[in-house]
């Protein structure tokens, strides 16, 4: 009954086996090893992007902040969704890596930036000449923090608005695979074909120990990225261990299988919760996260019974027992099939 | 015949086994897991420092740069040895993480800061009042970039000079274990008992996949470090995999065994090279690195024969064949015992 | 008919005379001159703050950004009003000087932060632990960007909310004198007695060529400020010319006279505009700025007739001729008495 | 007898008169005034550079640090002379404005970078690939901190070395006029014709209250500079007062007259000191600064008698009375002709 986060579960066994296989003999450090060369090539193939610059880092925050620092300038503002990870959950890493850029929060009901709100934010950003910060990159999160997914048309519309002003677009793909499974499209369709310039391609939340890739479809900034990564202390000396994880992830579609499993668990969870009178599903369940609401007293009961999840808009002790509170329930790839049923069976309803 | 770096060899099998054991079930992320609590306690015991603040990061550069950012201020200068890793090999990470502090390079023959040179640098640093940067942390590297080791008395003398001016002292211990084995002392003796405030305690070069600990003996800056680590994108979500590595490293003195092996290989290598007429050992061989000099033509022969090592003060094509060039030869824990003999047997002499 | 900005008019003649008097003989640079000592003492007296640390800089943005960099930390967020100068008109200077802090925009109708909105922002800021930026300084603007003035009770309420969480409070006093004249209180009452820790005390918009003072009521951070000012390139070598301006400003209550004049002009302007059918005064006119709305066609007429002011919520060519647009009309100390009447007489109404 | 600094004397009366003339009526702020347009054009003519981007700031440190931030990158190192102002006297402003670039100190006897030393520094800088900071701008100081002047041939040699590696060259011209008078060449010859990309063109040390110009001969980075200047809080709202000073400076060759006077005073001072047995002139006296050495006891006598100057390599109380100490004696434009003779007449010799 562990729904707290998709970083709480184990790595997939195939990933550890790959680490074991990689742990033989001597290879050059800092990414100059054959496994790294292989995984770079694999990612280029997966994204149908033979010229892409591809890099590995250890955390999603590093992927996002380094990518944005290359795409933007210190005197610009980054457009992101309200409640985006880059704004709320990275302790100012984008500001740190960019040298003090701003973040402009754009209205994003259910996690998805409204195009009208982006238009207004873009319009406002250029108004004050040298006195104001300048418009900078747009960053979109796919799947969003609310577990929802932009359609390809929605992505294309938003990226076109940025591109019309000469602004680059970054995709925070911490849950890239989950979104891709939902859309049933190709990685290229969800990225460069939809107008994305650079991607944080997540692995950690979907079965790795801790590896994310940064992909620039235009390699012009490759060397700058390498210098910023090193300077940011994110260039691993024993780089083969990052490469081995990512290679295992991509082989035999493991990454898509794991995302499919996680999404299916969330679907099952939502369906079962939907049957419980008094439970409200808050957002469309499109990936591996369910946001749902039920009375405080039931939360108390469930959490005492050993369930793990976060309350998203209140606390156990913050009000009346019958007041509804929203829970975030995240299903990771490893969730045992019976966990969902067991969890829902504990509802007092 | 792989002497290029101690980041080129494999991780110790016990470390991978520990990863496998850690890969079970659900635990909280970001360091709030039992394994992390355990390894923090273990490090406190190893260092006889029950109040120490202890953190794990993925790279040595992160450990150094984050530690210095906490100990210093943007308007200060960090005193370090000429050729220190923080100056030459981190692409400006200390400058980046501190917000633009300077590094003052102090004369350091054979890698060890001369106390007279440090005295002069400290003396000069305070002279220009508000116009100049202010004196900041001292950072010492143990073992040094030249493979040498400060004696405890030398450490105490240098740290006393800094402390007399109210300046904190950091120890870059990327090869901490190798130095400790050479001195035959305790971790406490080589750190806080010798006047050190904070340590980058290396694991990556000595058998891990990629984990370093940062230890502050005074926990006053613990929360600041946590925020800086997160903001620097160095807080791993699946933190247990860092903890598992470090715990395996410290159990049953594995870390000291591995360092002893590596040091012994270097000792053996130096002894054998010493027998070769025309080879000069450049620095005292105290840890796992040998600096030695021989004619360019021999380097050409050896490197063509499959040896891997770095030329330290020239290139194969930069001058006459009989000109002596210095090689850096690093022995890692995994070096097969016969590799040294095989390598030396290839000398044309 | 120049209402574009209070930085468009001349400096007061007494200020230029003071420059002339200061331009004699040799004095030490960088603030170690007698005039600087004198003006520091004068400001301490004016603010009834004998221990205050007082510094001069050349721009209001420097005053704000340097003050905030001393009061806050890179991993914090600064709470400010929506549309505050620090957010909209300083091209990210606060972000730059703080090393990448965030700004949290708080709802502020008519320029004044709503206490409920501040409470909510403070409440939210601490919620995400190490993952989110931490609560930092509160900065209030007095007079506000809308020309309104916080009452002493309002100031006290807002500063108490910050202080209850251990957060320092900065006052952006670019139009300090104008607000003071409106309230009719003492500088101490409007600052430290109301809970303010540090002030940007403006002179440039009220008759100087370009000098602002930064005042810390607690001198603990004095040395840090001096280093940050130098490092920010804001320590003037020929410092006496800043001191002379500020001293002339404070002598014989010149600063209050000038603010009184400017406020009176705005009052007169508002009264006359109020008589014009079809003109709406948007905000209470409490200082030297009037925000008023009338049809686009009239703006076209007035601007063509030689009036200077900014349109605040639209452009001449952005819509129907009868659509009302808001103008910002700023009266500086030097505005000729007849200018207001002349301007209003040009209205086509 | 005031030889402490060329920032200790008064501004030239013509400069104050220009301020008075500028202090009429209303003009747009932030540099959009006619006087600023005029001075930009004047500087372009003076430098025979019709396309140059020209900006005014209030301090020499701002000019240097902003120029370097535009020419370089955070991950680069700036090559400068040992004892350069940018390294010793700006409290890390270049590091702050560049976002943490390094400064590489190049051997510079008598203030002038040795070309062999620059060659070695350039050679070394590129060696470590992604691990080391990258080569960045070269900055030369003309006249140097030692009062000496690079010949045009020397400038051309050094700039050619940087340009051969694609590196831009900045000239710190805090005492530009003094050097120009010594060389008797044109501003163009001493800058872009000698390979310089950007200049900090000083006025403050030569008769202004506080204005320096930054000149980029290639305007490609103009907009970036404007944003950095604003963000650095160095864009003055009442910009006409900076423009008026600089315009007065350039009219009727005032700037060259003042430099000629200052240089002549220093020449006279050196000639007279040369007559005093026991006095040693340390460096060639080419501009307005004399470095000379005489016994500590004489310094005590002179300083007690009311002379003002800095001891450069020791203190009054740091050793035996007969030990020679070096003085720095700076002559500003306003030095009364008799001051030199009076000063030298006080020598006890």
From TrEMBL, chains A, B, C, D:
Cofactor list: pyridoxal 5'-phosphate
Record has Zinc as a keyword: no
InterPro entries: ArAA_b-elim_lyase/Thr_aldolase, PyrdxlP-dep_Trfase, PyrdxlP-dep_Trfase_major, PyrdxlP-dep_Trfase_small
A matching Pfam family: Beta_elim_lyase
Domain of life (superkingdom): Bacteria
Domain Aromatic amino acid beta-eliminating lyase/threonine aldolase: 3-292
UniProt keyword annotations, A-Z: Lyase, Pyridoxal phosphate
Classification via SUPFAM superfamilies: PLP-dependent transferases
MF terms (GO), sorted A to Z: lyase activity
Gene3D superfamilies given in the database record: Aspartate Aminotransferase, domain 1, Type I PLP-dependent aspartate aminotransferase-like (Major domain)
Subunit description: Homotetramer.
Family: Belongs to the threonine aldolase family.
Protein name according to UniProt: Beta-eliminating lyase-related protein
Organism: Meridianimarinicoccus marinus
Upper classification of the organism: Bacteria, Pseudomonadati, Pseudomonadota, Alphaproteobacteria, Rhodobacterales
């Amino acid at each position: 009954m562990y729904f707290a986060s998709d970083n709480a579960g184990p790595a997939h066994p195939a990933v550890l086996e790959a680490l074991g296989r990689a742990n033989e003999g001597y290879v050059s450090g800092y990414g100059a090893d054959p496994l790294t060369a292989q995984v770079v090539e694999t990612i280029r193939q997966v994204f149908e992007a033979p010229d892409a610059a591809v890099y590995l880092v250890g955390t999603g925050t590093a992927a996002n902040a380094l990518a944005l620092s290359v795409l933007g300038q210190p005197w610009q503002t980054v457009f992101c969704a309200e409640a985006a990870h880059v704004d709320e959950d990275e302790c100012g890493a984008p500001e740190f890596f960019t040298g003090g850029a701003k973040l402009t929060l754009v209205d994003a009901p259910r996690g998805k930036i409204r195009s009208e709100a982006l238009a207004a934010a873009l319009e406002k950003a250029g108004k004050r000449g040298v006195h104001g910060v300048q418009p900078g990159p747009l960053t979109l999160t796919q799947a969003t923090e609310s577990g929802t997914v932009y359609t390809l048309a929605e992505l294309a519309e938003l990226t076109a608005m940025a591109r019309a002003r000469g602004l680059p677009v970054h995709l925070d793909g911490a849950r890239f695979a989950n979104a891709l499974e939902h859309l049933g499209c190709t990685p290229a369709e969800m990225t460069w074909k939809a107008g994305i310039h650079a991607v944080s391609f997540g692995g950690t939340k979907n079965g790795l120990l801790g590896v994310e890739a940064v992909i620039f479809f235009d390699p012009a900034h490759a060397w700058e990225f390498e210098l910023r990564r090193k300077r940011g202390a994110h260039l691993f000396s024993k780089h083969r261990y990052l490469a081995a994880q990512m290679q295992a992830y991509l082989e035999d579609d493991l990454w898509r299988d794991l995302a499919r499993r996680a999404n299916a668990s969330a679907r099952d969870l939502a369906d079962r919760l939907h049957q419980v009178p008094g439970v409200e599903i808050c957002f469309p369940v499109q990936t591996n996260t369910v946001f749902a609401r039920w009375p405080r007293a039931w939360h108390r009961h469930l959490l005492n019974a050993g369930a793990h999840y976060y309350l998203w808009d209140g606390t156990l002790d913050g009000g009346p027992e019958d007041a509804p509170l929203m829970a975030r329930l995240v299903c990771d790839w490893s969730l045992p099939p019976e966990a969902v049923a067991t969890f829902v069976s504990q509802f007092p309803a």
